[in-house]
Amino acid sequence: MWREWLNKERARCLIRLGLMTEARGATLPDRDTKFMVAEDIVEVLRAKPDTGSNFLEFPELYFVRA
Known about the structure:
The protein is mainly alpha-helical. It has helices spanning 2-16, 22-25, 39-47, 49-56. Helix 3 (39-47) packs across helix 4 (49-56).
């Protein structure tokens, strides 16, 4: 799931930059699906404050807030 989401994000970026045509983009799977962090991972992040704060420092590309 993570790799699929990251590839969709790359495709969005290439389209925005004009490096991928909409025709090529139309052949890709649905790019509107949002990536959500699994609840068990969220629980670990909440239980370990240092880990959670580090996660929140990642660029937005790495997560989508619900």
